[in-house]
Amino acid sequence: MAATKRAPAGAAVLRGDITAAIRNAVMNELAEVGYGRLSIEAVARRAGVGKTAVYRRWSNKLEMVLEIVSGVAERSVPMPDTGSFATDLQLTMFIVSKALQHRIASQIIPDLMAEAARNPKIAETLHRALRTHQTAVGETIVGQAVARGELPEGTDPGIAVDLMIGPLYWHLAVTRTPIDEDYLEKMANAVTAALKAAPAGPPAP
Amino acid sequence: MAATKRAPAGAAVLRGDITAAIRNAVMNELAEVGYGRLSIEAVARRAGVGKTAVYRRWSNKLEMVLEIVSGVAERSVPMPDTGSFATDLQLTMFIVSKALQHRIASQIIPDLMAEAARNPKIAETLHRALRTHQTAVGETIVGQAVARGELPEGTDPGIAVDLMIGPLYWHLAVTRTPIDEDYLEKMANAVTAALKAAPAGPPAP
Q1: Which residues of A163-173 are buried (b: 16+ CB within 10 A; e: fewer)?
Q2: Tell me, which fold does domain A69-197 have in CATH?
Q3: Mutate which of A174, A176, A186, A196 to disrupt the B interface (most B C-beta within 10 Å)?
Q4: Which residue ranges hold the DNA-binding region (chains A, B) (predicted)?
């Protein structure tokens, strides 16, 4: 299919509904066939657009997949600011637990993790997508809690993020075990106790 | 290559060195090409044996991969019994952190997680391999600590396992971030504080 690469004169605007349809098609193709077998042709077909519509937005498969998955990963954990550490923590863990039951956590991220070992660009983007935003969330929640006197000075936001997300990720996405009704409350209490008791030590001399 | 299918008369014993070579070849093939593209032919070639040698041990690819990966996952976390909860915990977290830097955690398990969404048998075996042994380790460490009075009665071993493994898995295997020198000590202190403060509540009435 010899699609015209050149956009019509003056038409630099990309239609949002087409972009949304392509994003949706990419997520569905990733879930069904995985990164290795995903093709631009199949994405375009599923979105009901020509391949040109895809190439107008992203220059190749790798760039397209990484931009779309990073976006979803970031939007899935919003920045809470409820005025209380306990509530910020419970809210974040609740949202994370919901996000982790989505196929992006149990299927798409694992698939990209496996590809990452063969492709340093995927490794780097995945690292950035999963780490940067989560670190910002951790720094904000912990910073606010320290300012309000709810957590000790020097509480490590990195430890906080790992404690907020890690147990849920392991339990839900890796071992695929449903959580009991009181699990989130128990885990939020445990994480609070962990952070109250374990401020960062002084920097090594 | 036409390997003789019939074993020598009376020879039901499988040679351990050949089994080890095949196991090794399976792990290497999984890391290189992933489950979907792994073939018995390539495994046999890499192990330097005939396909018959593989089929004498496992009846198909799925059974072979699941048995080998489950075995490695179980052996990678031994049961500690040092006489002190703090030391049991530090030792377990140290071993887990080493195991998680192995390609089985960053590559092979993610690959099987992605396959699991398409294949319930993989999902079930992975769930069992990752959950059963780890639960037993958690129950033993926590049980010993409760008996010694180091943790409160009713401490939840499931919460303990998720706290011991989850943050390390998230940090090392998912976000692929190296850990700082003092990370394990800080995290072990945090987990101890979490468990001391958070015994299981009474069952809901």
Answers
A1: bbbbbbbbbbb
A2: Tetracycline Repressor; domain 2 (1.10.357)
A3: A174
A4: 39-58
* CA distance linking residue A94 with residue A104, whole number of Å: 16
CA distance readout (Å), A32 to A37, A39, B5, B115, B186: 9, 12, 38, 10, 40
Is any Cβ of chain B less than 8 angstroms from the Cβ of A11? no
A176: left (phi over 0), alpha (psi -120 to 50) or beta: left
Closest by Cβ to B114, choosing from A114, A162, A196: A114
Domain residue spans in chain B?
16-57, 69-197
Q: How far apart are CA B46 and CA A156, in angstroms?
A: 46
Q: How many residues does chain B have?
A: 205
pLDDT at position B3 is 46
Inter-helix orientation angle A61-75/A109-116, to 10°: 130
Spatial contact of B160 and B135, defined as CB atoms under 8 Å apart: no
pLDDT of A148 reads 95
Provide the token pair at B2: 């036409």
DSSP, collapsed to helix, strand or coil, labels residue A50 as coil
Q: For residue range A147-173, list pLDDT tens digits in order.
A: 999 999 999 999 999 999 999 999 998
Tokens for B88?
A: 């049991």
Nearest to A177 among B127, B193, B204 (CB): B127
- For domain B16-57, give its CATH number from 3.20.20.10, 1.10.10.60, 3.50.50.60, 3.30.1360.60: 1.10.10.60
How far A32 CA sits from the closest chain B CA (Å)? 8
Using a CB-CB distance cutoff of 8 angstroms, which residues of chain A are in contact with residue B106? 113, 116-117
Q: How many of the other CB atoms lie within 10 Å of CB of B78?
A: 12
Interface of B with A in 119-138 (CB under 8 A): 123, 126-127, 130-131, 134
| Torsion on CA atoms B59, B60, B63, B68, rounded to nearest 10 | 90
Structure tokens at A113: 């993790």
pLDDT at B11 over 70: no
CB contact under 8 A, A111 and B109: no
